[in-house]
Amino acid sequence: MSSMKKQFAETSQSSAVAENITEDIIIDILSRLPAKSLMRFKCVSKRWLSLISDQCFAKLHLQMLSLETVAPSQKIIKSNPLQIIDYEALDNDEVNDHVVVESHDLGRDEPWGLAGSCHGLVSLAVYNGFLVYNPTTRESRKLPASNVVATYECFHGFGYISTTDDYKLVHGAFFAADDGSVECVLEIFSLRYGSWRRVPSKDVPLLDRVGIYLNGAVHWIVDRGSGYRTERAIIPFGLATETFEEAIPIPKVEGVLFEGVVIHEGCLLICDVTSISFEAWVMNEYGKKESWTRLFSIPIDGFPDHNFYVIPIAYTRSGKIVFQIDVSEMILFNPKDGTYKNYPIEEHHNVESAIYMETLVSPYIGHEQ
Amino acid sequence: MRYLALPLLSQNLTESTARAQTLSLYLQLSLQVSLSQRNESTMSSSSSSLPSCPKKVVTLKSSEGETFEIEEIAALQSKTLENMIDENCADTPIPLPNIKGKILAKVVEYCNKHAEVGVDAESLRAWDAEFVNVENTTVFDYILAANFLEIPTLLDLTCQSVADMIKGKTPAEIEKTFNIKSAFTPEEEEQVRRENQWAFE
């Protein structure tokens, strides 16, 4: 960050500040503000506009977010139609029963699905390629289509690699080979280098639509083995090595089939809603299967009927969990007493949702616009 | 509020100490080490036992010439003062011409409180919250003092306090708080506002 300090000191204008507050103090103060406030403060002066738009500052701001003891400001993004949901506002008792929703219009690039979320950047699957979008700054970057045929059987992941300061989008699909076996084709797009590359992929287990990013890898829950020896596990895809890494076994609990993975306080959390209970476990130490700890196992009475899925999306600051139920509802579930409030959501067809942080990170990191 | 040894931005930002108590303990440990190093010639045993030294005091002089005493152990929270102590420049009163007496007194109070042993985190947090529960201009004075004296915990506390105070403000209110004369023409400002209009909703 010393280069940033130098840059601003050299071009120091006479924007008089109260009591001789210097540039680096202003930067310190601003880096603690929520992204939304910073977007507003672009109007304050040319100096502030230049600072807030600077990607070095965005990185500093992101680092500050990860140091916070309180969960950083996050929202839910959903597709079909593209909307942002302020789920913390849902949790606020004063708000009545309508969901606090903001529509985002991307015109012809209306996404059909989400492809992953990381550092405030959301990757959207559109009809002729992908979009990397920051819903807070509304900046978007169109990526070309990969050579993998996009179908509903494809899978996606998106995340950050600290060693190269880069973001990668993973796009893969399964298809039946001539000998009847299932093969996988995998391509990766690097935001910094700007192109798709085919990556070798052998023995890839069947993956669900979208993986969850944590610690430089994208994670899916998979079934391993076959028949009676089927085991559920979490399989990470390392974004730096571009390979699938060793699967992490998940606890076997009677009557429970873990399907949802989310991030809770920086750890992977898996959960399931059975007909009678809500079960959630968290892996306190990444990669160590012994560190799986039961977080909740509570009886639930009258959970909303669902036909297809119950997907956990977010954990509110007060400890409630937001679930997407099938395609038409979101519920705010209170694990402490098993109660919930439901909120209808607007859906045109297959709704996908994800959580994202409010940051100033640009999809054009390092790359020519 | 969080406590982290937030160094000046030119340094590595990823380091963080979560509690002021830990920081104060670290400072006491480093004081023990430096004390035992200074007394190397007179000490026969290892550095595991603290020699019984009289409590050293540092004198600070405000811009108006008023003097304030602070125990060396508390003064070590200021990197500036620590450097002066290490270079043996702290035996005479240290002039601080850009810090008023009113502010310096409070900074000394802060350092003393954070050098105390056995204060639980919760009450320290509450004490800190009260410390910054003052007028904006005073908080800015604390920031400047903490910046000059390089007291990371105080800088963190005061900058966070200002951030919390301004996050909901309008750009016009910000200009007043920071005494900024906007360099935008009305048309330029309108354009920036329009490009970011959703941030105002």
UniProtKB/TrEMBL annotation, chain A:
* Gene giving rise to this polypeptide: LOC125314583
Which CDD domains is this protein grouped with?
F-box_AtFBW1-like (cd22157)
Q: What is the lineage of its organism?
A: Eukaryota, Viridiplantae, Streptophyta, Embryophyta, Tracheophyta
Q: InterPro entries this protein is in? A: F-box-assoc_dom_typ1, F-box-assoc_interact_dom, F-box-like_dom_sf, F-box_dom, Gal_Oxase/kelch_b-propeller, SCF_F-box_component
Q: Which domain of life is it from?
A: Eukaryota
Q: Which organism is it from?
A: Rhodamnia argentea
For this protein, the record's NCBIfam families field holds: F_box_assoc_1
**Ranges for the F-box domain?**
15-60
The identity of this protein, by name, is F-box/kelch-repeat protein At3g23880-like
Automatic annotation (TrEMBL), chain B:
Originating organism: Rhodamnia argentea
Q: Which GO terms describe its biological process?
A: jasmonic acid mediated signaling pathway; protein ubiquitination; ubiquitin-dependent protein catabolic process
Tell me the gene name: LOC115735788
Q: Which PANTHER family match?
A: SKP1
Against Gene3D superfamilies, the record matches this protein to: Potassium Channel Kv1.1, Chain A
InterPro entries assigned to the protein according to its UniProt record, in alphabetical order: SKP1 (IPR016897), SKP1-like (IPR001232), SKP1-like_dim_sf (IPR036296), SKP1/BTB/POZ_sf (IPR011333), Skp1_comp_dimer (IPR016072), Skp1_comp_POZ (IPR016073)
Identify the keywords attached in UniProt to this record, alphabetized.
Answer: Ubl conjugation pathway
Which residues belong to any copy of the SKP1 component dimerisation domain? 153-199
Query: Which Pfam family, an example, fits this chain?
Result: Skp1_POZ
Which family, according to UniProt? Belongs to the SKP1 family.
Write down what this protein is called.
SKP1-like protein 1A
